[in-house]
Amino acid sequence: MKKALTTLVLLLTAIGIVAQPVAHERKKVAVVLCGGGALGTIHIGALKVLEEAGMPIDMVTGTSMGAIIGGLYAVGYDADDIETFITGIDWGDMLRDRLSLRTQTLNERERQNIYLLDYRIFLDNSKDSLAGGLIRGTNIERTLRQYLRQPDDIDFKSLPRPFGCIATDLVSDSEVVLDHGSMATSIRASMAVPGVFAPVRMEPYVLVDGGTKNNFPADLARKMGADIVIGIVTDLGINDNYFSLSDILERSMGSDIHQRSDENEKLCDLVIHVPTRGYSAADFYHSAIRNLINRGEDAARAQMESIKALKRQAGVPDDYRPEYSFIHLDDVDNTEDIKLAQEENARNSIKASLGVRYDIEELVAAQIGATYYFGNKLDHKLDLTLRLGRRTMGRVEWSTSLKPHRRIGLSYEIWHNDFNLYQRNHRSDNLLFFYQRANATLFSLDALNLNLDLGIAWDYYRNYDVLSNEYSVSDFSKNEYYFSYHATAQYNTEDNWYFTQKGMRADLSYAYFTDNFARWKGHTGMSEVTAQWRLTVPLSRTTHVQPMVYGRLMFGKDVPATAANMMGGNRFGIYYPQQLPFAGFGHCHVMDSKLLVAGFKLQQRVFQEHYVIVKGQVAEQNDKLGHIFDRKPIWGVQLGYCYNSIVGPLGASLSWSNFTHQLYPYISLGFDF
Asked: 76, 208, 319, 491: most buried, per Cβ within 10 A?
């Protein structure tokens, strides 16, 4: 009996010795993610299902968008965090190299929301100065650098999940495997669509999108040592028409690329085909991304039995649940993107910008801007702006930083305008004039959400051609000039310049006008107070209401016509610097010296980036502040539609007021300037 017991113990021990290595030597599993622009967001949904099934994932390979998602997964984010990251990005700003609002001062935000294109040229002989695409990809690389949190020289095999991505070398026209160096730069190279994104210089290569050579790198996963390979690919279905840009680009990749992808699919143990018909590679709007993620999840869930079978084949039990999350979005330093943006502004460079818009009043207008960054410790900047159209403008500004966010500067601008002016609801004057302004900024605090400004200015109006009729009660025939002292405070936390979903904006300014730095026409100078406040309140995920109040109060004797209150149009300052917009006023009207406006805007997103907008406004006016509410109020309403396109808002509206008693149609395309 004792001998038998001893034999049993030795046998069990031997079994344990043999079995123990087997338990630890399970098969290595790789996930391969194809490219496809916005279509590549399907990978997130499929990864969520793989995690739900408890499938171990030991390594990741990808191309283009597959490289972005694969890189994030490789450093330790789980599928839920990647979904939060991808859906939280403003892809319109990202793909136009537009900086996040949270990295910019208020003045920088205003500039960014004027121009369609920004292009930066670095003059410090770095590789960044060599461009070759419409989009530099600066935003994408900066964002990846912030969230990947990896040093610039790393072996990708040392990551929590070993990683590799594919790019194409333009010099040799060959495929390049990127598995070491800077992860952010490597991924940027993998998704650099030729002609759209600037190529990435990584000696000795000039790299562009890897999808032109190997859009589904399952062969790389095998070379990295994967025993089991799971592939996730987009499936556009059969299409004989090829009408859309997505269809044309997809087929223009060539039969060799499709053959390469087909061959790589044969290297996989499981391929999850996700139907993406109805969407294109450029569909980066939020609802499309969420739908594509859901499609990836549905397609993977339909393969759940195959996934579980592969899991058992990998050598792990059904109840095995590995750790998928090694870092979290909460761990990311949210000030890092601000630091990177500041470092970029400190470099010797030129930023060139272009804005184009159309509306039924001015027809076509264009604006060109250029900023020269001197690249020194004082952060000198020189801004040049030229506007072409019915309203022509030229502007030059120099500024320098005394301390962080504190600037002083000088500026000069000249405007030429031609428009009809209305008084008492009748066309009274046609004005052609030059307006000049020279300004010295004595102090400016330009922080992320706050701007304080103190300065002195000279304004000059030269009305060189004025046509008036019997309805005119203002004398615009005289040329006028002022010296003014002004103080301005601005506060803005709005999350979007045009389609705000949260935040508040408040502006307050005071100016004192003289003709000799002390008095006006021999008596106390004129005073101007302007204010604006609005708050965006979400009623639901797609519905937002924005109450607002704004106005302008003029005090003093002998207020000239050029300083009078004016109201009309859809935007601030499009006719005269002090002109206020109002629903139902299709033209610029001269108003009393005290003018207040209150109203609301209701914004309803009806589909993807399509919005219905309703406005209601009430105005009160008088020459005496104490009697401003004595008259019958003026009210106006507006109903409009707007599409948030990549080239700017495309909108059409119809408005009416009880003052004009006329319907006013308005159509516009492009950013406001």
From this structure: 208
